[in-house]
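Customer escalation, tier 2.

The customer says the design service returned an amino acid string that "doesn't look like it belongs to this structure." They asked us to rerun it and document both sides in this ticket. The original structure tokens are below, unchanged.
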């Protein structure tokens, strides 16, 4: 497997203006990563974002750094004021950015679900046809650019492996697959080993993520911690420092023949540069064990 990192791992520094897209590229290459993936391209207009994507592509080519994936936000239930056509038209522009970046795969969200007391809140099965319609429109558009599309186990509403499989089966398109985030199963209190086992056959891309965990009967530990679906506590960690069974999950992916990029997505409170470098070293050892 090749070891990659998501640009999202640098987000804390990016938001503070301490690093830009080109600094991220340089640092990623200096750390020794094989690949990078981009979670959004900044800019207040699509024209500016298209131009920046061209510059990012050239900068990565110049240092021989593979761009493994492009990820973008989406909500195929509620997005664009519940208008599926407007929402898919918006995401098609993100696919155009992915094409400029030269990637062969792209992840978009399915839906983040509903807030408490939302009168339109329904179980996933109620909206599955609408989600599948949106995913189909997008993957057929992306196919023209030789880009495969994916959803991720992400966002609690459709994060459990069985819910992700419902969407995958409803779409039923060879150009459509799954981005497995190994750590994200814990957000819905699913054992990552079970989640990875369920989805491994359909994976186009994989995120390595680690979490610290505390049972919900404990007090809230404070900064950096958030609640799982069942009320337990998680905090993003350096790869290898948390409770996610990364080695077992990597072994499962190997068993199913996955030999593509395994990307770190760091979400912890530690120093970003130290965490990414340490995570790279640990993940490389985990893959080679």
């Amino acid at each position: 497997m090749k070891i990659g990192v998501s640009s999202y791992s640098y987000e804390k520094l990016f938001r503070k203006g301490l690093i830009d897209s080109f600094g991220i590229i340089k640092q990623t290459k200096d750390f020794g990563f094989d690949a990078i993936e981009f979670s959004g391209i900044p800019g207040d207009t699509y024209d500016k974002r298209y131009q920046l994507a061209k510059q990012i592509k050239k900068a990565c080519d110049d240092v021989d750094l593979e761009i493994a994936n492009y990820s973008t936000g989406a909500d195929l239930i509620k997005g664009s004021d519940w208008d599926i056509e407007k929402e898919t038209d918006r995401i098609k522009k993100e696919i155009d950015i992915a094409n400029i970046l030269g990637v062969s795969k792209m992840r978009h969200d399915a839906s983040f679900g509903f807030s408490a007391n939302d009168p339109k809140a329904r179980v996933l099965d109620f909206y599955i046809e609408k989600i599948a319609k949106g995913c189909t429109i997008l993957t057929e558009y992306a196919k023209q650019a030789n880009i495969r599309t994916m959803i991720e186990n992400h966002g609690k509403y459709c994060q459990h492996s069985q819910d992700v499989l419902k969407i995958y089966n409803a779409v039923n398109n060879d150009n459509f697959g799954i981005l497995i985030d190994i750590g994200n199963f814990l957000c819905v209190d699913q054992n990552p080993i079970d989640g990875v086992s369920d989805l491994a056959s359909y994976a186009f891309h994989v995120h390595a993520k680690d979490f610290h965990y505390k049972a919900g009967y404990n007090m809230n530990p404070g900064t950096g911690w958030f609640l799982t679906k069942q009320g337990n506590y998680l905090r993003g960690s350096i790869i290898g420092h948390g409770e996610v069974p990364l080695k077992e999950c990597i072994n499962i992916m190997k068993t199913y023949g996955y030999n593509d990029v395994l990307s770190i997505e760091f979400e912890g409170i530690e120093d970003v540069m130290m965490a990414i470098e340490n995570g790279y070293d640990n993940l490389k050892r985990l893959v080679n064990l």
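Tier 2 assessment: The sequence is consistent with the input. The first helix runs from residue 11 to 15. The chain has a mean pLDDT of 97. Sent an explanation to the customer and offered a walkthrough call.
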